[in-house]
Amino acid sequence: MSSLHPHEANRHPHPPHEPQNHDCSVPDFLFDSRSLQLMAMYGAAAILTLPLAAEAIDHPVDQAILGIPIPVPDIRYFISGGLCAALSHGITTPIDVVKTRIQSEPEVFNEGLLSATQTIVAQNGVGALLGGLGPTVVGYGSEGAIKFGLYESLKPVFSQFLPADDVALAYLGASVIAGAAASLLLCPMEHTRIRLVTEPTFAKGLIDGLPRIVEEEGWEGVFSGFPAMLSKQVPYTMTKQVSFDVFAGMLYSAAASLNLAAASVKLQVEIGAAFLASILSCISSQPGDVILTDTYKLKTLEQSDFRQVVSSIYNEQGLGGYFVGLTARFLQVGTIITSQLVLYDIVKQLLGLPATGSH
Fold first, then answer.
1. Looking at the predicted structure, is the pLDDT value of residue 51 above 90?
2. Who contacts 211 (Cβ-Cβ below 8 Å, separation ≥6)?
3. Dihedrals φ, ψ of 261, to 5°?
4. Contact predicate 284/238, CB 8 Å
5. pLDDT, tens only, 78-134
């Protein structure tokens, strides 16, 4: 049941979809009205695509290996990715705020995560921990839809040009393109989020924050952080998406060798594979995350030059400077990726797609 070598036409049946009661409610204070509208839009789209569920292919790469014509990209992957990314990033906003402040002001917040949280609350109030929530939900919801959707859609395309035994290369190629496309989409939102967090009086939220950045810096300034965004998002996407596929396939294979039915270990595999993927993703994208924060906290295009930012971090803090805030980010990214990938697997199965690595 390896997810990397789906050669045979006679596939194992999908794990049965047992009725489950998933309580995914989130406290109302975590989302503003515009964020809720976005979530409602994704949900409506999900309902509209339920009729497509009857013809799910075991795995996108099967289309290339089995000679099946590649259809129009399956919208269910985009919907699943958008929902899981918006929710997982939204609920971890307070941790992201603290992490960003530690990275942007290491000389002030240098006594750990708890101390930094207490200082932020004392100086700016509890509401400061939800700074940048709007652009986080909107930006990462859209980014997740593009990242997951393109990744799944491009795997069969890359597989057409590679030998069957090189399916892993198809995964890597698809993840690079998906990460790059998502980076371009995310730039305006992440620029706004970081300014809101590092300068609490800059604006009230996304609606007035982004126009102010455009007015002050122009559209060139809005996208000035694209190289820095690539340095974070491409390694992040590669390790998250590909390792989740690989780890899930390995765990399902291990379960099969123990004569355990895939349906009986589905949740355990999802959580285990997601947690392992989160560790790799956090480490691989940490330097890019620091570079991105430093890029957007600076005010001029000259100061935000990618090479200058990288050199500045190294000259001031050495190699350790690229790992400032790692503890907070392990907590944040570990929570985001584990919950995100588990939610992604659950949502796409509800839409009629198979569990990752189960076939």
1. no
2. none
3. -70, 140
4. yes
5. 999 999 999 988 888 888 888 888 877 888 887 888 898 999 999 888 888 888 888
Q: Where are the alpha helices (DSSP H) in the chain?
A: 33-48, 60-65, 75-91, 93-104, 113-124, 133-159, 167-198, 206-222, 226-237, 243-257, 266-297, 306-317, 326-350
Do 343 and 84 touch, CB atoms closer than 8 A?
yes
- As a whole number of angstroms, the distance between CA 170 and CA 149 comes to 15
Alpha-carbon distance of 56 to 62, in angstroms, equals 11
Q: CA nearest 96: which of 60, 120, 67?
A: 120
Integer Cα distance of 20 and 345 in angstroms: 14
End-to-end CA distance of the chain: 5
CB 237 within 8 A of CB 179: yes
Element housing 259 (H / E): none
Q: Residue 133 in 3-state DSSP?
A: helix
Count of Cβ atoms closer than 10 Å to residue 356 Cβ: 27
Separation CA 182–CA 173 (nearest Å): 14
